[in-house]
Amino acid sequence: MPSPNTFLLLPFLLFMTSPSLSLPPALVAPISKDHSTLLYSLSLYLKTPLQPTKLHLDLGAAFTWLDCTKPYYNSSTYLHVPCGSPLCDSLHSFACGNCYEPPGPHCANDTCSLYPENPVSGKATLDNALLDALALHTTDGSAPGRLALLPQFAFSCSTSSLLKGLAKKVNGLVALGRSNHSLPAQVSTALSLPHYFALCLSGSVNASGAAFFGSKGPYIFNKIDVSKSLIYTPLVLNPVTRTVVKYGPSDEYFIGLTAIKVNGKTVPLNNTLLSIDRDSGFGGTTLTTDAPYTVMETSIFKAFVELFVRESSALNLTRTNVVKPFGVCYLATDIVSTRAGPAVPTVDLVMEREDVIWRILGSNSMVKISKKGGVELWCLGFVDGGAKPRSSIMIGGHHMEDNLLQFDLESKRFGFSSSVLLQGTKCADFNFASAKVNL
Ligand SMILES: *[C@@H]1O[C@H](CO)[C@@H](O)[C@H](O)[C@H]1NC(C)=O
Ligand SMILES: *[C@@H]1O[C@H](CO)[C@@H](O)[C@H](O)[C@H]1NC(C)=O
Ligand SMILES: *[C@@H]1O[C@H](CO)[C@@H](O)[C@H](O)[C@H]1NC(C)=O
Ligand SMILES: *[C@@H]1O[C@H](CO)[C@@H](O)[C@H](O)[C@H]1NC(C)=O
Ligand SMILES: *[C@@H]1O[C@H](CO)[C@@H](O)[C@H](O)[C@H]1NC(C)=O
Ligand SMILES: *[C@@H]1O[C@H](CO)[C@@H](O)[C@H](O)[C@H]1NC(C)=O
């Protein structure tokens, strides 16, 4: 029986034809942060000839999509996916497209149609699936090497209008979700690599972080292998998708948060909100790169801020006028700096056991704001998500920066390092400079 992966076995052959090599050890790509939207993008190579491309990094999406309109789409190797083919079925296609314009990446008959979505604007369109070349740098964990090619990477087309709300330089979205068609899944399947990927988001808009695909480690930043310091918690399945078209479980990564502590004291909260309602998919704690800051359901947010403020007053910190979207800000001059940011009460995210804790220090809990006149503030980097958000806690980008996050899709578990700043390194320390990498 033909399987969807038949398409993906081709790169294997490609590697066999090169004389000196076996399979690549792992792949790596730079992640940059946009200073205006505060969203992240992954840099990779697409099409033939290969073109450096930036795509919005989305941890919860099922499939990648990119603008296929002229003149952006220029490639000699794209292929359409026929309706009813195993690949089309496995992509959960609900429509078959026909087109009466000149044939091109965007226009074919009997072509598999998908609903690419923009998670920031909430907009979706109907467009066709496509296969084309994708390449990423190989790595031994410490530096980028030559490119590895997937000749037939599957994704969806979109139009330029779907890009609204994303960072200016991106040309689409790269999906890192749980699905069989996310970038990590296609890379691992095509190149027979472990079904693992890892992210290290940089805390600076001026320096790139790194994503590793098909690798359990090492992940080396400034000579330090941060894969050595991971703590694991099971990934939790949300049975209901967040997407417009409902077809099964969510492609987002949820974790089993059971409590939040501030300086070791438990935030009083309604535990029902921490579990996922199996009919609606509401509740629970997810990880998102679509929001710059962690978003909490109103009652959780209020209880958390109240305890944080109480614990901070014990440190004699002066609350000052807040800066949107934050609820609490302090004068930076009142706060001592440490290796891992301002010295503020520690926030612990407690998972399935009391000793499985994701510790959040000042560099991840607080955001530095420079006001006119040279006044500097540290604001608590959490925002109120309203009374009925889909997920009760959405751990956002700032919170994950300078932490190594590993997604082990074989054992369905999530590994986190807490701040690597404590180890004397940072996510911007991956040695991209040693090779010609388009950042
Ligand atoms: C598309 O590619 C062709 C052949 O490589 C080239 O001649 C043409 O200028 C390209 N067009 C754009 C818009 O990049
Ligand atoms: C699709 O089929 C119709 C009807 O046969 C034809 O007019 C049209 O040109 C075809 N479109 C493409 C892109 O081949
Ligand atoms: C993903 O692939 C696996 C193995 O081929 C298969 O068992 C599973 O049903 C697929 N999942 C989806 C959502 O298609
Ligand atoms: C980034 O670079 C710009 C210009 O080079 C500089 O003004 C800014 O302070 C830098 N930001 C950070 C966070 O380093
Ligand atoms: C806890 O949250 C659930 C889900 O929103 C709600 O139905 C319930 O009434 C809440 N319980 C309390 C005591 O507020
Ligand atoms: C806070 O201020 C009070 C009164 O000035 C002082 O006694 C206390 O030591 C201060 N605490 C800290 C942590 O600085």
From TrEMBL:
<dbReference type="InterPro" id="IPR001461">
    <property type="entry name" value="Aspartic_peptidase_A1"/>
</dbReference>
<feature type="signal peptide">
    <location>
        <begin position="1"/>
        <end position="22"/>
    </location>
</feature>
<protein>
    <submittedName>
        <fullName>Putative nepenthesin</fullName>
        <ecNumber>3.4.23.12</ecNumber>
    </submittedName>
</protein>
<dbReference type="Pfam" id="PF14543">
    <property type="entry name" value="TAXi_N"/>
</dbReference>
<comment type="similarity">
    <text>Belongs to the peptidase A1 family.</text>
</comment>
<dbReference type="GO" id="GO:0005576">
    <property type="term" value="C:extracellular region"/>
</dbReference>
<dbReference type="InterPro" id="IPR033868">
    <property type="entry name" value="Xylanase_inhibitor_I-like"/>
</dbReference>
<dbReference type="GO" id="GO:0004190">
    <property type="term" value="F:aspartic-type endopeptidase activity"/>
</dbReference>
<feature type="domain" description="Peptidase A1">
    <location>
        <begin position="40"/>
        <end position="417"/>
    </location>
</feature>
<keyword id="KW-0378">Hydrolase</keyword>
<dbReference type="InterPro" id="IPR021109">
    <property type="entry name" value="Peptidase_aspartic_dom_sf"/>
</dbReference>
<keyword id="KW-0964">Secreted</keyword>
<dbReference type="InterPro" id="IPR033121">
    <property type="entry name" value="PEPTIDASE_A1"/>
</dbReference>
<dbReference type="InterPro" id="IPR032861">
    <property type="entry name" value="TAXi_N"/>
</dbReference>
<dbReference type="GO" id="GO:0006508">
    <property type="term" value="P:proteolysis"/>
</dbReference>
<keyword id="KW-0732">Signal</keyword>
<dbReference type="InterPro" id="IPR032799">
    <property type="entry name" value="TAXi_C"/>
</dbReference>
<dbReference type="Pfam" id="PF14541">
    <property type="entry name" value="TAXi_C"/>
</dbReference>
